[in-house]
Design goal:
The protein is mostly helical. Helices cover 60% and strands 5% of the residues. The chain has ten helices and two strands, in the order H-H-H-H-H-H-H-E-H-H-E-H. The radius of gyration is 23 Å and the shape is elongated. The termini are far apart.
């Protein structure tokens, strides 16, 4: 009977619950004193955690971050001009929900790319979609999309993203990319 239940859980795409049930079967003494409701709650909790982890992994993969960075790893000793109180207000991602922008500026080598990836990671942790681009590569892709007819489709995909990170803005003159796009 347990094999049929496991098969049905997998067919219903409840793999987290199936794994938790398998664990309960392998370690019966651990769960012996628990009521049916408590064991069921453990199965549901495992399914919820499994889905959350898969969603986070998918969001991080789709984001295509240049660097693996988290806001928890910020070194406030570095002279970047940011404070813990500023970060505490930004880490909640409320600025994203209010449709506000965040512009990170500073000289080369101060960690702007790292910080932007850390903010992106934080947004993914909160279930928001993120895409990271080097500006020159995005503009090149949009120029190609303009030529092959997929320009509006690309714009619609970008519009769906909660946080769009444009890194290395201004390293190359925009005139290299702007001319084909302005002939619409």
């Amino acid at each position: 009977m347990i094999n049929q239940t496991m098969t049905r859980l997998h067919s219903l795409r409840l793999s987290g619950m199936a794994e938790a049930l398998s664990l309960q079967q392998e370690q019966p003494g651990t769960y012996e004193g628990l009521s049916f409701e408590e064991r069921l709650a453990l199965l549901v909790d495992q399914e919820d955690a499994d889905r959350s982890n898969k969603r986070l992994a998918r969001l991080l993969k789709v984001a295509r971050f240049k660097l693996s960075a988290t806001l928890e790893d910020i070194d406030y000793e570095q002279p970047r001009g940011i404070t813990k109180s500023q970060m505490a207000t930004l880490v909640t991602c409320d600025w994203l929900r209010r449709k506000q922008n965040l512009l990170i500026t500073g000289p080369c080598g101060t960690g702007k790319s790292w910080l932007s990836c850390a903010f992106g990671h934080s947004a993914c942790m909160r279930g928001l979609s993120v895409r990271y681009f080097r500006t020159s590569r995005l503009l090149e892709a949009m120029t190609i999309a303009h030529g092959d007819g997929s320009y509006s489709k690309q714009l619609k995909q970008l519009a769906k993203v909660d946080l769009l990170i444009l890194d290395d803005w201004g390293l190359e003159p925009l005139s290299l990319w702007w001319t084909p796009l302005s002939r619409q």
